[in-house]
Amino acid sequence: MSGSGQGEQQGAALGVSFGTAMWLAIFLHLVGVEIYLNLTPAETHRLRQVSYQKQLEAGLPNPGSAGLTSDRWGDSLPWAPSERHVEMATHSAYESERQATHSA
Question: Which positions, given as ranges, span the membrane (predicted)?
């Protein structure tokens, strides 16, 4: 019975390292996303427009700046959606309302 505790020790070693590896992976992904967004301003702008559209459709009180945005927490200029996106948002809201009234 000399090897009966070896499996338990291996399991404990894996359990300890798994938690550390998980936190390290989460940290690396968070840092990686921030670096990616800072290196790709066009993608950052596109994602901000998509977020604005979804917040507008959800009826949030301050669409485009409803979360942790750099203009609320940092020192950047206030953000405003592009004109094309505002027109698309009002058109899609109008179409949704029109379809709801016709189906009722």
Answer: 20-39
How much is the average pLDDT of 44-73?
Answer: 82
For the entire predicted model, the pTM comes to: 0.52
Q: Residue 96: CA atoms inside 13 Å, Cβ hemisphere, count?
A: 9
Q: How far apart are CA 91 and CA 68, in angstroms?
A: 27
- Taking alpha carbons only, the member of 52, 75, 76, 74 closest to residue 65 is 52
Q: Which DSSP string corresponds to 66-78?
A: SSS-HHHHSSPPP
At 8 the three-state DSSP class reads: helix
Residue 15 CA neighbour count, 13 Å, CB half: 6
Q: Which residue has the tokens 């300890």?
A: 16
Q: What is the mean pLDDT of the chain?
A: 79
Structure tokens at 51: 């977020």
